[in-house]
């Protein structure tokens, strides 16, 4: 992963990230309900200590905090984490948040009941070595039996079909009409792609065009399952959108107890 490239992508997007949602607050509530339900199924009612290690501007973390969990946010983007903390406070919640690379999490061992890595964030890691480093770090900060939650795009079909763009998404926001889509430029290996994230924002009878670029590794479910198992997690389960109600496939796994 090229840290400046990914960090710059999310530093720049942090100001406009909410514009991808028709109603960002509704999405915050919906995502917390679904993800919180998966946590409850595995660990009980709680409240639980949660690390959202790719918190962005707080789309998942704020809702989980409002549901009563003790949430800490971290993200590669300092601009995004600052906004996450501010947005949480504006909604009556506390969200400690810090800029941190998920491969080098600055938290003590066994500090959390849950580690969340949502919104396809882990696929910014472009090598087996980087993904292993991130997953081992997530395992380190989880208590024995703690829960790992990862959400990613449904890449199995994508790898077969090789799409070059996503359908435009039109949102009517308080800021006006916003059209969001992505252009994908596949690498020769057929697994990684350069992404152009395009936003068209209507304002004052004209359109503003904003383009941000980053790279992803289109990990299949089998690949990510193998990486998670190799990092020492057990009870690995995939939850499809049809069964979970979440907009992306969700992987859950447990931290295997340490050897005595």
List the helices and strands and how they pair.
Blueprint: H1 3-13, H2 24-43, E1 49-52, H3 61-66, E2 70-75, H4 78-90, E3 97-99, E4 112-117, H5 128-141, E5 142-151, H6 155-161, E6 169-173, E7 176-186, E8 192-203, E9 206-217, H7 221-230, E10 233-239, H8 241-244, E11 250-255
Parallel strand pairs: 1-2, 1-4, 2-3, 4-5
Antiparallel strand pairs: 5-11, 6-7, 7-8, 8-9, 10-11
Describe what this molecule looks like in 3D:
It holds the Pfam family Methyltransf_25. One of its GO terms (molecular function) is methyltransferase activity. Keywords: Methyltransferase, Transferase. Residues 50-146 form the Methyltransferase domain. This protein has 260 residues and is of the alpha/beta class. The protein has helices at 3-13, 24-43, 61-66, 78-90, 128-141, 155-161, 221-230, 241-244; strands spanning 49-52, 70-75, 97-99, 112-117, 142-151, 169-173, 176-186, 192-203, 206-217, 233-239, 250-255. The chain has a seven-stranded mixed beta sheet, with helices on both faces. It has a four-stranded antiparallel beta sheet with strand order 6-7-8-9. Strand 2 (70-75), helix 4 (78-90) and strand 3 form a beta-alpha-beta unit. The radius of gyration is 18 Å and the shape is globular. The relative contact order is 0.15.
């Amino acid at each position: 992963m090229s840290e400046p490239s990914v960090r710059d992508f999310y530093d720049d997007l942090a100001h406009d990230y909410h514009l991808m949602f028709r109603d960002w607050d509704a999405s915050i509530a919906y995502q917390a309900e679904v993800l919180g339900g998966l946590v409850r199924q595995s660990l009980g009612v709680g409240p639980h200590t949660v690390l959202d290690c790719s918190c962005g501007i707080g789309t998942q973390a704020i809702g989980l905090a409002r549901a009563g969990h003790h949430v800490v946010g971290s993200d590669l983007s300092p601009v995004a984490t600052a906004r996450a903390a501010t947005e949480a406070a504006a909604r009556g919640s506390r969200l400690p948040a810090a800029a941190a690379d998920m491969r080098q999490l600055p938290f003590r061992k066994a500090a959390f009941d849950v580690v969340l890595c949502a919104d396809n964030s882990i696929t910014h890691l472009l090598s087996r070595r980087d993904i292993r480093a991130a997953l081992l770090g997530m395992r380190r900060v989880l208590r024995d039996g703690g829960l790992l939650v990862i959400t990613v795009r449904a890449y199995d079909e994508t790898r077969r079909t090789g799409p070059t763009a996503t359908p435009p998404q039109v949102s009517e926001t308080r800021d006006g009409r916003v059209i969001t889509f992505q252009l994908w430029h596949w690498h020769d290996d057929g697994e990684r792609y350069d992404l152009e994230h395009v936003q068209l924002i209507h304002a004052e009878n004209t359109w503003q065009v904003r383009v941000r670029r980053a790279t992803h590794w289109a990990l299949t479910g089998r690949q990510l399952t193998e990486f998670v198992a190799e990092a020492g997690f057990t009870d690995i389960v995939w939850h499809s959108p049809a069964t979970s109600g979440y907009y992306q496939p969700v992987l859950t796994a447990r931290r295997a107890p340490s050897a005595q």
